[in-house]
Amino acid sequence: MKVTTIYADAEGESHFGEKDFPLTESSPLGMMSVLQPATGVIFRETGADYNYEFHTAPREQFMVILEGGVDFTVSSGETRRFGPGGIVLLQDTVGKGHRSEAVEGKPRKSIFIPVVNEK
User: Fold this and answer.
1) What is the Rg, in whole angstroms, of the alpha carbon atoms belonging to the chain?
2) Do 69 and 42 touch, CB atoms closer than 8 A?
3) CATH of residue 94
4) Are 62 and 113 in contact (CB under 8 A)?
5) I need a labelling partner for 44 at 20 to 30 A (CA). Which of 9, 60, 68, 70 fits?
6) Is 103 a domain residue?
7) At the top level of its lineage, which domain of life is listed (predicted)?
8) pLDDT band, residue 60 (cuts 50/70/90)
C-alpha cells in the first residue's frame, strides 16, 4: 500500500513523496502489512474555515481523513487534495513545513497516529 508523505530535504524545503508498506497474504481477512509501531491516536475536528499557514508537523505522524478534506501545500509550491480515506505520513518536523487549508468550506474530521521511530 502506497502512502503519501510530506518530508523536508536537507535545505529545509518540504516535498511530497511516497512510502510503500508492503502487504502480504495473512489470512482469510485479506492482505496486511507488518505492525507499524505507534504511540496512540488523536481525534481531531477542524472548522469549515480552518486554514493554517506554513508550519512543521509537531511529530512524525500519520493523518487519516475521516470526513471532509484538506489541501496540503508544500514549500516547493505543489498542492494536493486529500478527502475521506486519504492517508498522509507527516514527516516534515523541521524546515519550512506545509500549509493546510479546508476544502469547500466544510469541517474536517481526522485522526492522527504518532509514529514510533525505531533506531
Assistant:
1) 15
2) no
3) 2.60.120.10
4) yes
5) 9
6) yes
7) Bacteria
8) very high
| Domain-located, residue 90 | yes
The grid coordinates of residue 73 equal: 501545500
Quick check: 7 and 92 in contact, CB under 8 A? yes
Flag whether 119 is in a domain. no
- Given a contact cutoff of 8 angstroms between Cβ atoms, the answer to whether 51 and 102 are in contact is yes
Identify the pLDDT of residue 119: 55
Q: How far are the Cα atoms of 30, 48, 71 from residue 78, in angstroms, in the given order? A: 35, 22, 10
8-26 pLDDT tens trace = 999 999 999 999 999 998 7
With H, G, I as helix, E, B as strand and everything else as coil, classify residue 100: strand
Model confidence at 28, pLDDT cuts 50, 70, 90, reads confident
> What are the angstrom distances between the C-alpha of 112 and each of 88, 102, 115?
10, 17, 9
Q: What's the DSSP call for residue 38? A: B
